[in-house]
Amino acid sequence: MAALLLLLFACVALHVAGNAVNIIPFPTPCRYECLIACVCPPGEEADPTAIRPPTACCWCPPCIPKPTPPPIHCQCDMMCACLAGEEPDPNAVRPPVSCCWCPPCIPKMTTPSACTPTIPTGH
Which UniProt keywords apply (predicted)? Predict the structure, then answer.
């Protein structure tokens, strides 16, 4: 009789333990390799703080904008000068990674004089 009660208790305990395994989600390794490649668009990168959900096998972290580099603080002692008859190009744009830079020189634009010399006619 005691053996029968012990067997019955073992069966009930095993049944309860089996149901507990089904109820409590244990992390399981992925059974298949994931064939997707996680790629972010240009100017973005994978969020390094993102955490893979415990039930996801094929998962890509969200993409976030790449951090912008700090501004370049230039200290340049270079003097920019153009030759006589030239001037710095006002439309020139400094390259983003260049500190010491001089705009290219272009010929000075001459404006027509308001006074035009009169040519003597000899009369």
Answer: Signal
